[in-house]
Write a structure and sequence with these properties.
single chain, mainly alpha, Serine Threonine Protein Phosphatase 5, Tetratricopeptide repeat, two-stranded antiparallel sheet, 21 helices, 39% helix, 8% strand
C-alpha cells in the first residue's frame, strides 16, 4: 500500500491501535451531516470517513453502566455505590421510563443509520475515488483505494449485523431498517418490528452474503494496522454467537435440535476455517487481559479499542488505594464457583483453588498494588470504611497492578468482544446439545475436548470432568454453564447467559453474599458468610427490555411494547 493510501487509512479507521511501543491514533467516527452530495463527490477522504462512521456505535465494555462493567446487574458483583444504576436491574424496577441501558436502542440504530448512509453513498464509490486520484500515473494507489473501499462495504454489512445482534439480545424482535430515511423521526419508528427469528435470519444473511469481501484476518495480513476492523473471523464469530442465542431455551422453547446443529456448524467454522489461526493465549490467563497483551494475542478475534486510559483502574481499585473507588465488588456467590485443587486449607479458604480465582479477584490476605489486603476491623481495607467493599472482595481481572492514579498513570485497556476461549465454550455448549459430550460429528473437537482445552489453559490440575462418556447431555450442560461462569467472569456474558438459559428467574432472585473478615492474629483471618443484598427478577417480563415510553408514543402505534411493561 502506498504512502497516500496509508495516510488515508490512518485518518479514517478510528479504531486503529498500534502496539504499546507505538503511537496510537483513535479518531472521530461520527458523521458530519453538513456534508453535501457535491462534497462527497469531490472529496475522497469524506467517502472513507463515512465508512469509518459505521463503527461509531460500538460499545466499550469497561464503561457499560455507571462508567463501569455490566457485572453488577448479575450475581457476579455488587456495586459499592448506593446510587448505582445497577439497582434498577437488581431490584426489578426496570420499566419503559427507567432503563439505564435503554439509550443503546437509539445508539445502535444510529449505527445502523450510519451503515445505511454509507452503503447508499458508496454505490458510486469507485467513481468518487477516481476524481481524487490520478488513475494513470498512480494506478497502484487507485487500486489500493478500490480494495479498501470494497473491504469497507463488506464491513459495513457486518457492523449492521452486529448492531442488530445487540438489539435483539436486549429487546427480542426489533424493526429492520433497510435504508436511511430523510426526516426528523428516527428510522426505527417508521417500521413495525420484525420477530426475533426474522432478525436472526437477516443477521445471518448479512454475514453470509458479504463474508467473501472481508479481509480474512487483519493480524496475519499485510495490513495489520487495520486490526480494529471487522474481518472474516470476527464476522463468523458474530454469526455463531447469534445462532447460539437463537438455539437457547429463551428463543427455542421446543428445543429444536436443528438450531443447536446450526450453531455448532457455525462455531466449527470459526475454529476450522483456513487462515483464521486462532489459539488460546499461552502467557497465563491473568496476563491475557492486561495491557496490550490481548491485542497481540491470537486468542483475540475482535477488540473494541480506545486510547490508553485508567477508567477501569480508577473505578475498581480498592478505596484504600489512592485514586480508587472500589466499584465492582465480586460476590461470594461467584467466589464459591472456583473449584478446589487439592485439600481445603482451614486457615485460607482461597488457597488451592482454580487459579482463575487469584487472577480475577482480590481476596483478603492477598497482595495487590504492593500491599496486603486487610479487610478486618481496623485494617487498611476495613469493610466498615466508607465505600469499601461490601462483599469482602475486589476486582482484579483487567486491572493493571500498581498504576499511579494520583499522578495520572494510564494503561492499555482494550475491550475484547470476541475471543477464541469463549468460542470454544460456545462450541462445547452447542455440540453437547446437538450431539452429546463425545460425538464430534466430523468436526475438529467434541464438546468435552473443546471445554477441556479451556480448563487446561487455566490449570492441568483442575478436577477431571466426571460426566460419563454416554451422552448425558443435561449433566454436561451443567459443566458448560459452570465453566462459562468462571472463565468469562466480568466479561459481560453472565447476565445474558442467565437470560438465554432462562435461569435468571432462579439465580437473580437469590441474595448476593459476601464474607465478614475477622483478624485472628498477624496474617491470619477468619471468615463468616453474610448476605449483602437481596435481588429481584420479574419473570417472564424482565427477560426482555422495555422500549421507552417516548419511542412507543412517537411511533404512532408502529412499535409494540414488549409484554409486561
Amino acid at each position: 500500500m502506498n504512502k497516500n493510501s496509508k495516510n488515508t487509512l490512518v485518518l479514517i479507521t478510528g479504531l486503529l491501535m498500534l502496539f504499546a511501543a507505538c503511537k496510537k491514533d483513535f479518531l472521530n467516527t461520527r458523521i458530519d451531516t453538513s456534508y453535501t452530495n457535491a462534497t462527497i463527490i469531490t472529496d475522497r477522504s469524506t467517502l472513507f470517513s463515512f465508512a469509518a462512521s459505521c463503527y461509531g456505535s460500538l460499545q466499550y465494555g469497561y464503561s457499560a453502566i455507571d462508567n463501569n462493567l455490566f457485572a453488577g446487574v448479575s450475581d457476579e458483583a455488587q456495586i459499592t455505590s448506593a446510587s448505582s444504576n445497577t439497582l434498577v436491574f437488581n431490584q426489578g424496577i426496570i420499566n419503559a421510563n427507567n432503563n439505564p441501558d435503554g439509550g443503546l436502542y437509539k445508539t445502535y440504530y444510529d449505527g445502523i443509520r450510519a451503515v445505511n448512509f454509507f452503503l447508499q453513498y458508496s454505490a458510486n464509490g469507485v467513481q468518487f475515488l477516481a476524481l481524487n486520484r490520478d488513475t494513470i500515473s498512480d494506478p497502484v494507489g487507485f487500486a489500493n483505494d478500490k480494495m479498501n473501499l470494497a473491504w469497507y462495504i463488506a464491513e459495513a454489512h457486518i457492523c449492521r449485523a452486529y448492531y442488530y445482534a445487540e438489539l435483539i439480545k436486549r429487546y427480542g424482535g426489533v424493526p429492520i431498517v433497510p435504508e436511511t430515511y430523510q426526516g426528523t423521526t428516527p428510522d426505527s419508528l417508521l417500521i413495525p418490528k420484525s420477530s426475533y427469528d426474522a432478525v436472526v435470519t437477516y443477521i445471518v444473511n448479512e454475514i453470509e452474503n458479504n463474508k467473501a469481501g472481508l479481509q480474512v484476518n487483519w493480524a496475519t495480513s499485510a495490513y495489520t494496522g487495520n486490526a480494529g476492523r471487522f474481518s472474516l473471523g470476527s464476522a463468523l464469530a458474530l454469526e455463531a454467537r447469534v445462532l447460539l442465542f437463537a438455539a437457547s431455551p429463551l428463543h427455542n422453547p421446543t428445543n429444536d435440535v436443528t438450531r443447536w446443529q446450526k450453531a455448532a456448524a457455525a462455531l466449527n467454522n470459526v475454529i476450522s476455517t483456513t487462515g483464521l489461526n486462532y489459539a488460546l493465549y499461552t502467557g497465563g490467563y491473568q496476563n491475557y487481559f492486561l495491557g496490550a497483551n490481548s491485542i497481540a494475542s491470537t486468542e483475540t478475534i475482535f477488540a473494541i479499542r480506545r486510547p490508553v486510559n485508567n477508567t477501569i483502574e480508577t473505578q475498581n481499585y480498592p478505596i484504600a488505594t489512592p485514586g480508587g473507588n472500589s466499584g465492582v465488588c465480586p460476590t461470594d456467590n461467584l467466589v464459591q464457583a472456583y473449584e478446589l485443587i487439592g485439600a481445603v486449607n482451614p486457615t485460607n479458604p482461597y488457597a488451592n483453588r482454580d487459579p482463575r480465582l487469584a487472577a480475577s479477584i482480590v481476596t483478603n490476605g492477598s497482595t495487590w498494588n504492593s500491599r496486603t489486603i486487610d479487610e478486618s476491623p481496623g485494617g487498611t481495607d476495613d469493610m466498615a470504611s466508607r465505600n469499601a467493599s461490601r462483599t469482602g472482595y475486589y476486582l482484579k481481572k483487567f486491572l493493571t497492578d500498581n498504576l499511579n492514579l494520583v499522578n495520572g498513570g494510564t494503561a492499555s485497556n482494550q475491550w475484547v468482544a470476541y475471543r477464541y476461549g469463549e468460542v470454544l465454550l460456545e462450541f462445547a455448549e452447542a455440540m453437547n446439545e446437538a450431539y452429546g459430550p463425545d460425538n464430534n460429528n466430523g468436526y475438529k473437537y467434541t464438546a468435552r475436548q473443546a471445554l477441556t482445552l479451556v480448563r487446561n489453559r487455566a490449570s492441568t490440575s483442575l478436577p477431571a470432568i466426571t460426566v460419563a462418556v454416554a451422552p448425558d447431555i443435561p449433566s454436561f450442560r451443567t459443566v458448560v454453564k459452570h465453566e462459562r461462569r468462571v472463565e468469562l467472569a466480568f466479561e459481560d456474558y453472565r447476565y445474558w447467559d442467565l437470560l438465554r438459559w432462562q435461569d435468571a428467574a432462579t439465580v437473580l432472585n437469590q441474595p448476593v453474599t459476601g464474607v465478614a473478615v475477622t483478624k485472628v492474629s498477624a496474617g491470619v483471618w477468619s471468615y463468616s458468610p453474610i448476605t449483602v443484598a437481596t435481588r429481584t427478577f420479574n419473570a417472564p417480563t424482565n427477560y426482555y427490555y422495555p422500549f421507552t415510553h417516548a419511542d412507543i408514543v412517537n411511533s404512532n402505534g408502529t412499535l409494540v411494547q414488549n409484554p409486561g411493561y
